[in-house]
Amino acid sequence: MRTRITELLGIKHPIILAGMSWISEPKLVAAVSNAGGLGILAIAPLSPEEARRQIRETRSFTDNPFAINAMLINRNAKEIVRVALEERVPVINYSLGRPWFIDEVHAYGGKVIGSIAMVKHAIKAEELGCDALVVTGFEAAAHGADPTSMVLIPLVDESVKIPLIAAGGFFDGRGLAAALVLGAEAISMGTRFIVTKESVVHDKTKQKIIESSELDTIYSNVYDGLPGRVLCSPGSEAILKTGPMEKAERYRRIEQSVYHGDNEHGFIYTGQSQGGIKDIPPVAELIDNIVAEAEKILGNAPRRYRI
Amino acid sequence: MRTRITELLGIKHPIILAGMSWISEPKLVAAVSNAGGLGILAIAPLSPEEARRQIRETRSFTDNPFAINAMLINRNAKEIVRVALEERVPVINYSLGRPWFIDEVHAYGGKVIGSIAMVKHAIKAEELGCDALVVTGFEAAAHGADPTSMVLIPLVDESVKIPLIAAGGFFDGRGLAAALVLGAEAISMGTRFIVTKESVVHDKTKQKIIESSELDTIYSNVYDGLPGRVLCSPGSEAILKTGPMEKAERYRRIEQSVYHGDNEHGFIYTGQSQGGIKDIPPVAELIDNIVAEAEKILGNAPRRYRI
Question: Which chain A residues are closer than 8 Å to B141 by Cβ?
Answer without folding.
Answer: none
